[in-house]
Amino acid sequence: MLNRVILIGRLTRDPELRTTNTGKSVVSFSIAVNKLRKSQDPNQPDADFFRVTAWERTADYVSNYLSKGRLVAVEGRLENRKFVDNSGANREVTEIIADNVQGLDRPRDDAAGGDSHSAGASRPSATVAPSADEYDPFADE
Fold first, then answer.
1. pLDDT value of position 114
2. Homologous superfamily of 5-107 in CATH?
């Protein structure tokens, strides 16, 4: 038997890191994954939304390096949980327990001015090719 899931999507909110009573890190986040079928309105994208939980080192990575809007690959397993909520109603939730999460893009610099360099540093002109360690294949051109 096999229970494996691999999804590529964008985080719909910032990850929420918590620590259990035993000191383990756990992070919760959700991702939106585009559907392959065409929706009725071609201007309206159609997506599925999945809850994801990651533990320990994976949780620390997600919390430190990923944020809302980032493109990620999630590998893990599906898990169903049943519980009783605060109002006494029975609930059931299906989520992905992630074994591996990888960021597939780089964060955009949303700071004022768009420059993450120090105030005295100048950026290379757009006509100069970036060095191999500065090349960003995901950057907008």
1. 43
2. Nucleic acid-binding proteins (2.40.50.140)
